[in-house]
Amino acid sequence: DTGVSQDPRHKITKRGQNVTFRCDPISEHNRLYWYRQTLGQGPEFLTYFQNEAQLEKSRLLSDRFSAERPKGSFSTLEIQRTEQGDSAMYLCASRFTGDSGNTIYFGEGSWLTVV
Amino acid sequence: AQSVAQPEDQVNVAEGNPLTVKCTYSVSGNPYLFWYVQYPNRGLQFLLKYITGDNLVKGSYGFEAEFNKSQTSFHLKKPSALVSDSALYFCAVRDPGAMDSNYQLIWGAGTKLIIKP
Q1: Strand segments (E) across A42-106
Q2: A60-73 mean pLDDT
Q3: Contact list, B43 vs chain A (CB under 8 Å)
């Protein structure tokens, strides 16, 4: 395991459809984060998990968004009834809280295009 | 308000020349500072970080950054640019005094670095 992996890398969907993204963090990383990034902007925090517990959700995360990390390993981010404004790259990141440097490691992202 | 500023949207450098990508920050307390790089259609890759200690931090791919507390800056540098360094560079900061439950990096808007052969 060499890094955070995300699947799918690209998804094109019609408005109103549901989509799900998966993130596999680095092994033994107990914290997992989801971010959203639009072109020309830095990432925006969405939510994060400590093991299987979802500890915080941003106000950016509408009710159409739901994230899970059922076994404290991989995580899924589901978007229901997608809207064109959901088009963005969804980034997953992970870290180990024993790392005092607070470095988080990002996956390569999942691009979502809603048409 | 806490913030990170990258004053240049784009930096153009000729291959072989030194490069600097600027970052200034405004946070309470001692910051933890990071640089990440993003290649087209890719996620963010960690380059380097400053937590404490030596103000000059060395990172991946020959990059380094200098922490300047008086100027609240953390500029990214490389002595000799490569065409392959062309990418989007993000500066980020976390206030270590923030509650861990509110962990989120404060990101700059990014600087596009273009290295011309």
Answers
A1: 44-50, 53-57, 65-68, 75-79, 88-95, 105-106
A2: 91
A3: 4, 6, 89, 91, 106-109
